[in-house]
Every structure is written in structure tokens, then in C-alpha cells.
Amino acid sequence: MIGNIISWCVFGLIAGALARFLTPGKDPMGCFGTVGLGVAGSFLGGAISHLLFGISNQGIQPAGFIGAVIGGVFVLLLLRHFAKKT
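That's the Transglycosylase associated protein sequence above. Prediction below.
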């Protein structure tokens, strides 16, 4: 159980950092925000792959690394869009 949580955090940190690197601009988030970005990107990437390709049986599930990075970029762009509105 603890090993799964640690691996999710490491996976989220790497995917979130890569998504932030691929999306230039200011993002005032720390390490925990980057982990959250990567994990949220993973779930969004899983949902997108399910909608486009019908890959999973359960609807929304964690995606692979590339899907997590693509989902992280989308989440980051959405965060920027809604942060400008407030």
C-alpha cells in the first residue's frame, strides 16, 4: 500500500514536471502541486484515451506516461485559463 502511494507520487512528480517543462510560462506551484498535476494529468489522459480509442473497460483510469504528460499539459492550461479569470 505505502509502496503504491510512493510510486504514484514519483510518477506524478515526473509527469507533472515534464508537463510544466513543455508548457512555458509562470506556474507558482511547488513540489506537491507538481505531483498533483501529474496525477490529475494521468486520470485525464486515461479518460481521453478511453473516449478516443476505447482502451479501458472502466471509463476513467490511470493512463500511461505519455497520456499523463498530455493530460498534465491540458490540466495546466485549464488552471492558467481559470486563474486569469479571478
